[in-house]
Amino acid sequence: MTSQYYCKTIATTDPVDSYYAAKNERADNIPEANSTRTKRGIGEHTKYWAPGKTLKVLVCTYDEHSFQAVKNAANKWLPYVNLKFDFFEMEEEDIYQSEEFLGDIRVDFNPLYDGSGSSKLGTDSLTGSPHQASMVLGTDFSSDRFEFRGVHEFGHALGLQHEHQHPDAGIPFDREKTYTYFGHLGFTRTDVETNVFAFERVPGRTYEPYDSQSVMHYSIPDSITMGDWSHAGNTQISAGDIAFMRKIYP
Ligand SMILES: [Zn+2]
């Protein structure tokens, strides 16, 4: 059985916002080479939270299972990060009373996301409207898959990118078949480029080795690769994920 699961990260539309959110949180999010803005504009940067921080996790009130389900998923990361989570639940209309970010991470639910999910990356959660969720999860709380989808989304919320997009992943995608396959799942071509295909290696950024066991890895069907290449997907935090989290949140 494969753990088919395809999430889209929520892109921050304003790279300047993203840059300052990352820089204000943690100076070492900005590589030294990018500390002065070049004509390439805002360079690549990481979006990690400050080590030791207590992240406020606002969970919109949904039903009697939703709050605990979010806590269970997020807390899977806790043993491996020098962070704490302060979870609290709020009604949507109360969230709209404030013009401030009430939560560093703001979780909402939508039945259209059953079987999937979406999140901003790390400190990008503090960009855009404070009324907007930074993470959207499905409502299939009783599914045995719900927890691992939440773990994957909280991986993004802590700043992790998709592992199948690692520059060394070397997945032999048949690009046109991949666009078509994900198109049927509601992905635009841009979504496929930003969520499926490999990232270019960025100078000045350090990489851990590609980890095919990562919970941040998609399942990849053989039908969209050239030759014989497929991946069943993962449902557990891997040893590589743990090592990476320990490194970025010492
Ligand atoms: Zn994802």
Can you walk through the features of this model?
The protein has 250 residues and is α/β, with parallel strands linked by helices. It has a single domain (8-248), classed as 3-Layer(aba) Sandwich (Collagenase (Catalytic Domain)). Helices cover 25% and strands 11% of the residues. It has seven helices and six strands. It has helices at residues 15-25, 66-75, 92-95, 146-157, 175-183, 189-195, 239-248, and strands spanning 8-9, 54-60, 84-90, 105-109, 117-119, 135-137. The protein has a six-stranded mixed β-sheet. Helix 2 links the parallel strand 2 (54-60) and strand 3 (84-90). Helix 2 crosses helix 4. The model has no long low-confidence stretch (mean pLDDT 91). The chain binds zinc ion (ZN). Zinc ion binds at residues 7, 9, 152, 156, 162. It comes from Pseudomonas azerbaijanoccidentalis. This is Peptidase M12.
Summarize the structure.
The protein has helices at 15-25, 66-75, 92-95, 146-157, 175-183, 189-195, 239-248, and strands at residues 8-9, 54-60, 84-90, 105-109, 117-119, 135-137. With 250 residues, it is of the alpha/beta class. It comes from Pseudomonas azerbaijanoccidentalis.
Find the CATH topology. Answer: Collagenase (Catalytic Domain)
The CATH architecture is 3-Layer(aba) Sandwich
Output mean pLDDT.
Answer: 91
Ligand names: zinc ion
Count of distinct strands: 6
Shape: globular
The largest beta-sheet arranges its strands as 1-5-6-4-2-3
CATH class: Alpha Beta
User: Strand fraction band?
Assistant: 5-15%
Order of helical and strand elements: EHEHEHEEEHHHH
Helix proportion: 25-40%
Radius of gyration: 18 Å
Uncertain runs:
none
DSSP helical segment count: 7
Note the gap between the termini: 35 Å
Biggest sheet architecture: 6 strands, mixed
What number of structural domains do the residues give?
A: 1
Organism: Pseudomonas azerbaijanoccidentalis
Protein name: Peptidase M12
